[in-house]
Amino acid sequence: MVRRRCGYRSVDLKYGEGSVKAQIRGSSIIACISAGVVEKTPDEDAEILRALSCPIGTPPLTEIARGRRSAAIVVPDITRTLPREKMLRPVLSALNSAGIPDERIKVIFGLGTHRPHTEEERRSLVGSGRSLAVKKGGNE
């Protein structure tokens, strides 16, 4: 919601689970764009598997990976909300099915300008029980 007041606009910005109000000079605002509502899929796991087996405009991951000796997966750092383990499990399974063992899969964290992860954070982000080659990424 945007309200005008003395040349400034009060803008509600989504932040976490809530929002914050910002006072912005009206002449600095080019446009206010609202995101559309995206319906949540009823079965996230099935949707992830469908996307891996029937991707848009490319062969399935198992076909791309077949015959390769190793693989690398770039994932967002700890500051991004993402169900990493839920998404990594089927990706790792597809790579394993294509003949690439966990030991030959590197996970690279895209840090951008964020601080480096601790070893414990790196391990926790890829899930438990995997012997992946967790590699430092970004500015680490």
From TrEMBL:
Transmembrane segments: none annotated. Residues 15-127 form the LarA-like N-terminal domain. InterPro entries: LarA-like, LarA-like_N. Gene3D superfamilies: 3.40.50.11440. It holds the Pfam family Lar_N. It comes from the Bacteria. This is DUF2088 domain-containing protein. It comes from Candidatus Fermentithermobacillus carboniphilus.
